[in-house]
Amino acid sequence: MAISTKDLQRLFVLIADDIAANRDHLCELDGVIGDGDHGLAMDAGCEAAAKAVGALDPAQTAPTAAFNAAAKAFLNAVGASSGPLYATAFMRAGAAVKDKSDLSDDDFRRAFAAMAQGIQERGKAEPGEKTMVDTWRPAADAALAPASGTSLSEALDMAERAARQGSEATRNMTAAKGRASRLGERVIGHIDPGAASAAIIIASIAKFARE
Ligand code: ADP
Ligand code: MG
Ligand code: MG
After folding, report:
1. Cβ contact 58:7 at 8 Å
2. DhaL domain: from which residue to which, for each copy (predicted)?
3. What is the pTM of this model?
4. For residue 19, which of 41, 189, 191, 206 sits 20 to 30 Å off, Cα-Cα?
5. What is the Cβ-side half-sphere exposure of residue 98, based on CA atoms within 13 angstroms?
6. CA of 45 relative to ligand 2 center, distance in Å
7. Phi, psi of 149 (to 5 degrees)
8. Where are the alpha helices (DSSP H) in the chain?
């Protein structure tokens, strides 16, 4: 599968649609252990990213520039902590595939893993601290695990499963980063909203790879 900027336009719409469908659910999760805006923030960011990427001329725009446009739009649309985290993720995805016009399955896997790395470095969170890193880290590791040349859909199906498990695992954690860290033991029993939205985005990306 060779992935072009035209395909990335489709990917960002897919992500925006899936996040929009889960907007209220994500706000509810954030209402329990945060300030209740996570669904609104992710919906605004993903919608803005899809619009910005959709407005590009795919014949004139390399994937790196498309990821950069998504990053800028996401950052401008979101005032919450998820803004700079996903903006960094998209910038890193773009940097990972610099100078390519069509992405191979391995290229796309590297871009995917770079997103996780960017989020982790920007937020300085480690796995186990009840954040979106608990979804992104295992998903990136799962995506990179199969040998080079493995089909993208196969690798991302594994990433999707790891993301779901990682997101679920935040239920039993206390938070070391973000707003929820102020609530101590009271957050135990509740999934982290950023971990949940990450699992949705990763499922959208896996769906994209299957299509
Ligand atoms: P805010 O807390 O500013 O309202 P959001 O509601 O959009 O931001 O996002 C909250 C989510 O951001 C959390 O559920 C968590 O997953 C994630 N998060 C917060 N701080 C960090 C961090 N330092 N590193 C990684 N993820 C973080
Ligand atoms: Mg919030
Ligand atoms: Mg907020």
Report:
1. no
2. 6-207
3. 0.98
4. 189
5. 5
6. 13
7. 95, -10
8. 5-21, 23-33, 38-54, 63-77, 82-96, 105-123, 133-144, 152-169, 193-210
- What's the CA gap between 193 and 206, in Å, rounded? 20
- The best mutation among 26, 37, 81 to test binding of ligand 1, ranked by most ligand atoms within 8 Å of the C-beta, falls on 81
Residue 126 one-letter amino acid: E
User: What are the beta bridge partners of residue 103?
Assistant: 3
Identify the residues whose C-beta falls under 6 Å from ligand 1: 30, 34-35, 37-38, 41, 80-82, 85, 119, 123-125, 131-133, 177-179, 192-195
- CA 205/CA 211 separation, integer angstroms: 10
What is the residue-level pLDDT of the chain in tens, covering all 211 positions?
799 999 999 999 999 999 999 999 999 999 999 999 999 999 999 999 999 999 999 999 999 999 999 999 999 999 999 999 999 999 999 999 999 999 999 999 999 999 999 999 999 999 999 999 999 999 999 999 999 989 999 999 999 999 999 999 999 999 999 999 999 999 999 999 999 999 999 999 999 999 9
